[in-house]
Amino acid sequence: LKRALTSSKEVANPGIVKVVTNSNGEALYFSRAPIPCDREKGPGKFVAGLHYVHLGIYIYTRETLLRVSTLPTSPLEEAEKLEQLRALEHGVRIRVWETGHQSLRIDTPKDLREAESALKRMTRQRTPVRSAARTTARGKR
């Protein structure tokens, strides 16, 4: 999945993995670098409709997963520390769909701490909901 970025700060952040796709929605490249670069605006400058964050959700056929898991790590994967580049470098096509969903990313220890805090806040704010089975057992419908 990919979601449109909204600022130069996001584009320049190496903690945010950017994705560039072709006209068929297939990944051309994933990078921590600010890609693509608008030549006139300069590297890392946000351009609406041009910059997307990669959301790390994958769906593989069994055969593809078995194939990718046995491939050696690739130079690009090693450089960027992005496992999906192994598949791309070995000719596996990765289809990317766009979403408007804003999700938490967990790529660093700091991201993990922030996600844990968010989960705790969500858990505290949740109100108890009666299950249908308990309500029916009490004779209420």
Question: Explain this structure to me?
Answer:
The strands form two sheets. The protein has a two-stranded antiparallel ribbon with strand order 1-4. It has 141 residues and is of the alpha+beta class. The protein has helices at 8-12, 62-70, 75-80, 84-89, 109-125, 132-137; strands at residues 2-4, 18-21, 27-31, 52-54. It has two domains: 2-103, Spore Coat Polysaccharide Biosynthesis Protein SpsA, Chain A (Alpha-Beta Complex), CATH 3.90.550; 104-141. Strand 2 (18-21) and strand 3 (27-31) form a beta hairpin. The protein is built from six helices and four strands. Helix content is 35%, strand content 11%. It starts with a strand and ends with a helix.
Question: In terms of topology, how is this protein built?
Answer:
Elements: E1 2-4, H1 8-12, E2 18-21, E3 27-31, E4 52-54, H2 62-70, H3 75-80, H4 84-89, H5 109-125, H6 132-137
Antiparallel strand pairs: 1-4, 2-3
User: What is the number of E strands?
Assistant: 4
Distance between the termini: 41 Å
Instruction: Say which CATH homologous superfamily of the largest domain is assigned.
Output: Spore Coat Polysaccharide Biosynthesis Protein SpsA, Chain A
Question: Which of globular, elongated, flat, extended, rod-shaped describes the shape?
Answer: globular
CATH class of the largest domain: Alpha Beta
Strand order of the largest sheet: 1-4
**Sheet with the most strands?**
2 strands, antiparallel
Class by alpha and beta content? alpha+beta
Poorly predicted segments: 131-141
What do the pLDDT scores average to?
86
What is the annotated CATH architecture of the largest domain?
Alpha-Beta Complex
Order of helices and strands: EHEEEHHHHH
Radius of gyration: 20 Å
Would you give the CATH topology of the largest domain?
Answer: Spore Coat Polysaccharide Biosynthesis Protein SpsA, Chain A
